[in-house]
Amino acid sequence: MSAVLAPRWSFEGAFHDAAGGLALIGMDGRWLAINDAACDLLGRSRTHLEGRFAAGACELEDAVTLIHHIESAIDGGPRAFDLELRMPRLDGSRSWLRLQASVIPDPRGAPGYLAATLHDVTEQRRAREERDAFFDLCPDPLAIATHDGVIQRVNRAWEVALGWSSEEMRAQPFIELVHPDDRERTAAESERTFAGQATPRFRNRYKVKSGGYRWLEWQVRLGGDGRMHAIARDVTEQQQAMIIFEAEMKRRRQRLDEAEQRLDVHVNNTPLAVVEFDARLRVRRWSARAEALFGWAEEEVIGDRPDQWRFIHEDDADIVATAMLSLVTGEAPSQIVRNRNYTRDGRVVHCEWFMSAVFDDAGHLLSMLAFAQDVTARVQAEAEAAEREALFRATFEQAPVGIAHVGLDGRWLRVNRTLCEFLGHPVDTLLDLSFQDITHPDDLDRDLALVQQVLDGQLERYEIRKRYLHRDGHVLWAHLTVSLRRDAEGRPLHFISVVEDIAATVEAEQTIRDARDELEVRVIERTRELESTNLTLAVEVEQRRDAESALRESELRIRTILENSHDAFIACEDDGRIAEWNRAAEAVFGWRRTEVIGRSLGEMIVPPALRQPHEAGMARFLAGGDARVLDQRLQLPARHRNGHEFPVEMTISLVRLGRRRLFTAFLHDISERVAAERQLRESEARLRTITDNVTAMIAYVGPDLHYRFANGAYADWFGRDDADIAGLHMRDVLGDENMRMAQPFVDRVLAGEQVNFDRVRISPDGDERHVTFTYIPDGTSTIDGGRGFFVAAHDVSMHKRLAQVLEHRALSDELTGLPNRAAWTRALNEASQRAAREAVGTAVMFLDLDGFKRVNDTHGHEVGDAVLREFAARLRRCVGGGDLVARLSGDEFVILLQQADDVGSVAEHVAASIAIAMRPAFEIGELRLSMAGSIGIAVQRDGAVDGARLMREADEAMYETKRTRDGMPFRRVELVAAN
Questions:
Q1: Distance CA 584, CA 566 (A)
Q2: Which of 244, 414, 597, 728 minimizes the number of CB atoms within 10 Å of its CB?
Q3: What is the rounded distance in angstroms from the CA atom of residue 852 to the CA atom of residue 829?
Q4: What percentage of residues in the chain have a pLDDT greater than 90?
């Protein structure tokens, strides 16, 4: 070799000592020269190689290839070639060597020899073979395509999926296999991939060799060599199911729309007001009848939260809140509530609400539907009926005569107290009897005959005097008035009987009859005496005539004064007989003067219950001169001619006319004054009853800050009696600390401004109570010119708890108890705002469970749910108190971190903790499941945060973790702030 190459080769030492394999090969294929590195690669010594055929070191198939390339170079073909050859070694092993050879011409320009370099590519070749094996053995279709869309390589799975062999697909533009309707979208996805953009999974239809198309789902990425690498999954059955599902959903949506339309027609045509609330109790539907009833238009109330409802009376808000809470929590399927409501013009109407809640299959509240009916007229009618019933009961029970309802068979059905006292029977005993049992036998037939005439329609009513038998056996005289009550169709129901005690009348009549007989005897005797003394008296008569004339003139003057007096004037003898009665007395008592003169005062104007005390008082005066009632202003009940009693104010005086004593009295009717006083007392009592029975706390504070009034609820709130609070200073009731808090509001209300404020108080049993206070200035002045103010307070704790329950349900994942997607979105927005204000870094971690679908498919969703709950618990233990862990859906979880320090390092530490926490098996019942998670981290150290971008990058990083599987439990992406 030295002789041949000496003129041209002066670096033989460098050739032999080169680190890489170098060799010279003659055009006959023999080794001319070979360095040590090439010998090591070939596994033979230089002496064993030089002069021998190079093809002899190769396996037969590769030897033929090498000889072919050498002959082609001699024949004028390519002057350089690059081959990978299999080289058996003397130790029995085999290696792959890459031979890169170039033709070196001789001085004549003809091929002289080949200069070659040798490289061991055994490992690369083995890796490529393994990759090709995996490529061909993958059950999913794999493909590699150039930028112009030509398929360069596919695996055997294509033949299973579509029927096309690798040879048939190779060198084909893949777009020609795509369904015409999907080509435009497929081309756009390819352009995005070649532009370096992240391409999500997409689906299209590919042609099947035997006819038709199959749906494939693609994952595509751009390789380092600029080619597109893709993996497909046959999702035809899934897509067909999805198409069927979407068609079914479309049909159901159409049916739902039709149902909504029908519902709207029914809602707008129903005479009831219809109000629908969404899951957060915001107004979602407001029917035309609701607008007509309450006055607010639909656009004014749609979206209003419970604290914005203007149509609920504040005093009934707790009733409504309690009913709705029972529906929201599922305690009751429906509620019927009657409460007061406001209209837009400020009127109060009573409504009856029928409310029901609608839940989905998972028990989540979807909506609440309420139907309202204006029952104001009914409430007023019921109140009037109750008032009439109370009036009837009072009249029935307090009547001075006996009243009873008697059955058609004569049995007592209902009796008043006066009748029981008259007959001497308790109520229970009397109701067991009939009127026949206690009627005097001599009067029974006549009474029964009249009863029959009334039943036969011959009489509408009848009145008789009859005798009853008292319980102790003595006879009672009564005046009986009977009428028959019939129903709407004229059928008899029962008798109404009025029994008046006339024992005194019967006795007086008997006395009058006896007195009349006696008087007739005495008149005869007296006539005889008068005739004898007539002559004697004639002279005296003439003398008295003159005196009587003067007396009549005086009496005329006095009578004129008394007749024109505005007060009633009555004079009576000491035996109680009326001697004088003016026109005012006629107007007050209803009796004409001619009807009362000479009759007993007690009989005419004294109520029956007071006649005996009246007569006893007169007797005491006449017997001993007890004059305590004389010349005093007295207020007593009096009796009108028609029987009703009324109050009078009177002054009684005694006039002595010789031996004659005459009692005079001036009286005037004070019914209106007494009624006004009673009405004032009843109004005050009613106000006290109302204020003591409302849930609101009500008080009145004077300008000197002393309480003038406080209802029971206000007193209970401060642990006092309402009577004790009146007169106390606000500081004595509220305490120094609460008074300091309230003082600014007190100053404002005393200045004429209405103020509202909220306070939280811990009750003695440890409950947190939320109270809304309203201070309202009094529009009227006190005697000293100052103005106080009203205090109204409402316990809104129930509303707060209802709002908290709704918010917790809206922001919590029911399965794991973690915040849900809505809560996550809110927290991410707040983190973005904080990052814009403060120098903090933000990290988002995206996590899911590897192989979770297999757990669900193998063991069922109950086990899957238990795995998710355990995964959530382990995540919570790996983060700090200020960090947020949330569940988005399925097995997708996210973590939000914000730190002033290196938030990226904190996130990696959390990820490492999660990886450690996942090592123990998940024990679900008798199962032990080994689970692993993939984590993606997106970090932004400072500046305004784009939450959507952080989520997207963390998601991509998580999928990169899944794809690489290089032992790292997470991937981290560092972002730069937009500013």
A1: 6
A2: 244
A3: 30
A4: 37
CB atoms within 10 A of CB 429: 13
Neighbour-count burial of 202, counting CB atoms closer than 10 A to its CB (0-12 exposed, 13-18 middle, 19+ buried): middle
Q: Does pLDDT of 351 surpass 60?
A: yes
Give the architecture (CATH level 2) of 675-801: 2-Layer Sandwich (3.30)
Q: Within a 10 A sphere around the Cβ of 760, how many other Cβ atoms?
A: 10
Q: Which string of DSSP letters, residue by residue, matches 931-948?
A: -EEEEEEEEE-SS---HH
Does the reported pTM lie above 0.85?
no
Strand-pair partners of 887: 893
Between the alpha carbon of residue 513 and those of residues 257, 464, 521, 582, the distances in Å are 96, 21, 13, 31
For residue range 393-425, list pLDDT tens digits in order.
Answer: 776 777 788 899 999 999 999 999 899 999 999
Q: Which CATH number fits domain 400-501: 3.40.50.300, 3.40.50.720, 3.30.450.20, 3.40.630.30?
A: 3.30.450.20
Q: What is the CATH code for 138-234?
A: 3.30.450.20
Tokens of 177: 């296999």
Fold of the CATH domain 286-381: Beta-Lactamase (3.30.450)
CATH 3.10.129.10 fits domain 2-126: no
In which band, very low, low, confident or very high, does the pLDDT at 878 lie, cut at 50, 70 and 90? very high
Contact at 8 Å (CB) between 762 and 733? no
Among the listed residues 897, 779, 882, the one whose alpha carbon sits nearest the alpha carbon of residue 847: 897
Q: Give residue-wise pLDDT tens across range 221-254.
A: 888 888 988 888 888 888 888 888 888 888 888 8
The answer to whether residues 794 and 344 touch, using CB atoms and an 8 Å cutoff, is no
